[in-house]
Write a structure and sequence with these properties.
This protein is an alpha/beta fold. The protein is built from eight helices and 15 strands. It has a nine-stranded mixed sheet with strand order 4-5-3-2-6-7-9-15-10, sandwiched between helices. A hairpin with a 2-residue loop joins strand 12 and strand 13.
Length: 287
């Protein structure tokens, strides 16, 4: 079993460079509320998609160049808008767009929750994951049940409180903190809990919509969502009025399976199997 050292690591700067991004676009009220809250903690620079890229997950731009435009934000500061994905934004910020590498990546505030299995699709969480891939501490923060009139100052204020604490105590190495805030006033919050990822129950199905010549139109996704009732999960915390904080890392290896599967190596490498394969390749008649 591989040991994962996620001990607390001190920030390298008393006034850190904080790169703020999202997947809802540079004009999102969530991003602007977060910038206002975090400005006192360090130098906050915005690098965000020019338009909504929700559900982009960890997609990147590989075969074309990216445009970057300086945009004046409502507070009068200048941000960078790109036609790339949230992950592109983080990579650009970390690899040379700014004067120095970021000390911290903050992604959000997402206009909607990112709980349980949802994180695998989320551009918000993907941007934070890219931060820890590059060795930069990161958080992702989302507004559960977002609607018109949602008080975004609540998750923004909590993010500032959490990061103020992290600046003093250190940040878990190679780990991002995925935060989900319920739709409550700050006074009504039950508190904050560190949680595990819950299990989302999707009600998706394929539904036929129309025909156009040889093409058929289908709808796959819908809003019939549920979750498993599990104490200690992020779903459970938010449902009970707590802010959920879930530590995540990027180790995709299943070490237990690796140890079990290594017993197959002798059979997979048998001389007769390899010889048969080479014979087929030599005859020009592969299966």
């Amino acid at each position: 079993m591989v040991s994962r050292d996620c001990g607390l690591v001190a920030f390298g700067s008393a006034r850190p460079l904080i790169v703020l991004t999202n997947d809802d676009g540079i004009r999102s009220p969530g991003l602007l509320a977060l910038k206002e809250a975090l400005d006192p903690l360090g130098e906050v620079r915005v690098v965000a998609p020019e338009e909504n890229r929700s559900g982009a997950a960890r997609s990147i731009t590989m075969h074309s160049s990216l445009w970057v435009e300086e945009v004046t934000l409502p507070d009068g500061s200048v941000g960078y808008s790109t036609d790339g994905t949230p992950v592109d934004c983080v990579r650009m910020a970390a690899l040379g767009l700014l004067e120095r590498p970021p000390d911290l990546i903050v992604s959000g505030i997402n206009l909607g929750e990112n709980l349980g299995d949802d994180i695998t699709y989320s551009g918000t969480v993907a941007a934070a994951l890219e931060g820890i891939m590059l060795g930069i501490p990161a958080i992702a923060i989302s507004a559960h049940g977002y609607h018109s009139g949602y008080d975004l100052s609540v998750p923004a204020r909590f993010a500032r409180h959490l990061l103020s604490l992290a600046l003093k105590k250190g940040f878990p190495a190679r780990t991002l903190l995925n935060i989900n805030c319920p739709d409550r006033s700050f006074a009504e919050l039950a508190g904050a809990k560190f949680t595990v990822l819950g299990k989302r129950v999707y009600g998706d199905k394929v539904e036929y919509r129309a025909t156009d010549g040889t093409r058929r139109l289908y709808q796959i996704y819908n809003d019939d969502l549920g979750y498993l009732q599990e104490p200690g999960s992020d779903f459970d915390a938010v449902a009970n009025g707590f802010i959920s904080i879930t530590p995540l890392h990027f180790d995709l290896m299943c070490h237990e399976a690796l140890e079990q599967l290594r017993s197959w190596e002798s059979e997979l490498g048998r001389a007769d199997c390899i010889g048969e394969r080479r014979a087929r390749e030599g005859s020009g008649n592969p299966e």
